[in-house]
Design brief:
255 residues; single chain; 29% strand; alpha/beta; seven-stranded mixed β-sheet; three-stranded parallel β-sheet; 10 strands
């Protein structure tokens, strides 16, 4: 049997073959498409192009975009406009959006951050704390851990840096007055996905849903975004409670 003669060498095609993602590149949040879904799609495109010896079939998607339009299968660049230190290990990061554009999230949706640490690509999911209809910006609450891979990358961020996000994923289906009461239980930065829902309800005068938010923190000083929580608790249909694991003598309870 005469061997198949290819117009290009096998090595040429192998150099175009998509690289299978590392375990660290999956954020573990059940995103659709996941990095593995994107890989399988690109692999199928490569196999078809190789079988037909037609490079034009390789519509390989770009890994990065700079037009500040969030996409689930492509990482987009966003610039950090401010960094606010909230506690010794947690910061609130504000990112720019062009003009009066919005990130385009629905309630409860999260986005995925990509970071590089010692040549290793890492991805983690975070839920913006800004209102879903915020224009010109979005904000993310992030706690850094001493031994965390992504934390090593985030700790280096300063105002003006550009980082890459993709999404959105997930969601919390909600319609005004869908429920008589919502009970929100949150620990630490787990309060992040609760805040857009809380603000969405209080901004709608016709939504009479009653909300009880129970936030669990280490100390009074470690309660994140106290001014925002204080402002939200002034609404007639919002009640906030705090559970602290530690008490300090100088703790002030004036919320």
């Amino acid at each position: 049997m005469r061997p198949l003669v290819m117009s290009e060498s096998e090595d040429d095609w192998l150099s175009l073959m998509p690289t299978e993602p590392l375990e660290s590149q999956c954020c573990g949040s059940g995103c659709k498409p996941c990095v593995y879904d994107v890989y399988q799609k690109e692999l199928a495109q490569w196999e078809e192009a190789k079988a037909k010896k037609d490079r034009s079939l390789l519509t390989k998607q770009k890994e990065e975009s700079s037009n500040s339009e969030l996409k689930p299968d492509t990482f987009t660049a966003f610039k950090i406009s401010s960094v606010e230190q909230l506690t010794e290990d947690t910061c609130q990061y504000k990112f720019e959006l062009p003009g009066n554009s919005s990130l385009g999230l629905s309630l409860g949706q999260h986005i995925v951050l990509r970071g590089m640490v010692n040549g290793l690509e890492v991805q983690r999911a975070y839920t913006p704390v800004s209102p879903v209809n915020a224009e010109g910006y979005f904000e993310v609450l992030i706690k850094c851990y001493e031994a965390g891979l992504m934390s090593q990358y985030i700790k280096s961020w300063i105002q003006g840096d550009t980082v890459f996000w993709r999404g959105p994923f997930g969601g919390f289906p909600y319609s005004p007055n869908q429920y008589g009461e919502l009970l929100m239980l949150a620990s630490g930065t787990g309060i992040a996905p609760m805040l857009p829902i809380l603000q969405y309800i209080t901004e709608n005068e016709d939504d009479e849903t009653f909300i009880t938010l129970v936030g669990c923190f280490r100390t009074f000083e470690n309660i994140y975004l106290k001014p925002l929580l204080q402002d939200q608790s002034r609404y007639w249909n919002v009640r906030t409670c705090y559970v602290l694991s530690q008490l300090t003598p100088d703790s002030s309870w004036a919320l």
